[in-house]
Amino acid sequence: MESGLVIMGAMNQTTASPHSLTLPPMPKIPIVCLMGPTATGKTALAVALAQALDGEVVSVDSALVYRGMDIGTAKPDWAERDGVPHHLIDIIEPNQTYSAADFRRDALALIGDVHARGRVPILAGGTMLYFRALLDGMAEMPESDPAARAGLEAELAQRGAQALHQELQQVDSHAAERIHLNDPQRLLRALEVYRSSGVPLSEWHVRAQQSAYAGPVLKLGLIPEDRPRHRALVASRFMAMIEAGFADEVQALYRRGDLRLDMPSVRCVGYRQLWQYFNGDWDWDLAVEKAITATRQLAKRQMTWLRKESDLTAWNAFELNRAESVDFVRDWCAKSK
């Protein structure tokens, strides 16, 4: 998803940006962050923690924000939420976008609101980019301009990726080293930033002011230690979604007429593959096979993010003692007040 903000990770430079952004005040409120790959039981544990700790759940899932996308996203229904307030679910239409910057803004506001009610904010989900945006901070850069992007896309079609990558090499060699010429989205964004601001993308990273989360953070990771078991679970879970009417859900989206395959909502795992079935690109069996494969690849990427997390308390998703987990988090909350 395009955004005018950059995730700040390892960099710690604090030179002010020439286009400074007034970031939301950073609260010093203790938060619980429950992370993990898809199909590891995050929803059930988040609800259990919220019930035991008088908490509220803030979803950290880029797919749950969309209305009308329930089955394929494993969106918790009212029964699964079991009376626990959930936030950042069903907040936009599938033809709209929701960036990491949007999430950070909304999550910070919700953390303050939940805390003001005397409750514990529990952030749960598998969109690691959102966690990174909240915890490590973000920095401003020029907003994406649709007209400028359209012009760059026309240039890409006319001149080719190689020529545009060579141009990027001339104006921002550091970005060119990181961005492959077969990654048009990042390539065009890097050129757009330079052309609109006169400042290379890599320089924006250097100039950016970090704004990491200032309060105590408990990071919990649900890890599927038994990988073959998890791979089988991913497949059986997807087939259960099919039985629950997932194909009908995707077909309804396909028939809306205002959605395209390149939109973030349609590109969600499972939706993209069934969309291509309805589009006549693949037969049914191939679409299902590709959807299961894509879900497993998503889980692998999520695990890659988790391995980079510092101060992570990792629990085996298949051997979780829920009572002990709740006690652990309760003790942490008591010490962090």
Describe, in plain words, how this protein is organized in 3D.
- It is a single chain.
- The chain has 337 residues and is of the alpha/beta class.
- Helices cover 50% and strands 11% of the residues.
- It has helices at residues 42-53, 78-81, 100-116, 128-136, 146-159, 161-171, 173-178, 184-197, 201-207, 227-243, 246-256, 271-278, 284-307, 322-336, and strands at 5-7, 31-35, 55-59, 86-87, 120-125, 138-140, 217-223, 312-316.
- A six-stranded parallel sheet has the order 4-3-5-2-7-8, sandwiched between helices.
- Strand 3 (55-59), helix 2 and strand 4 form a beta-alpha-beta unit.
- Helix 1 (42-53) packs across helix 14 and helix 5 packs across helix 6.
- It is globular.
CATH class of the largest domain: Alpha Beta
Report the sheet-strand fraction: 5-15%
Low-pLDDT parts are 1-24
**Please, how many helices?**
14
Q: What is the element string, with H for helices and E for strands?
A: EEHEHEHEHEHHHHHEHHHHEH
Beta strand count: 8
- Give the rounded overall mean pLDDT: 90
Strand order of the largest sheet: 4-3-5-2-7-8
- Helix residue percentage: 40-55%
Instruction: Give the total of domains.
Output: 2
In CATH, the homologous superfamily of the largest domain goes by the name P-loop containing nucleotide triphosphate hydrolases
| CATH topology descriptor of the largest domain | Rossmann fold
The largest sheet is: 6 strands, parallel
- How would you describe the shape? globular
Rounded radius of gyration (Å) = 21 Å
Distance between the termini: 36 Å
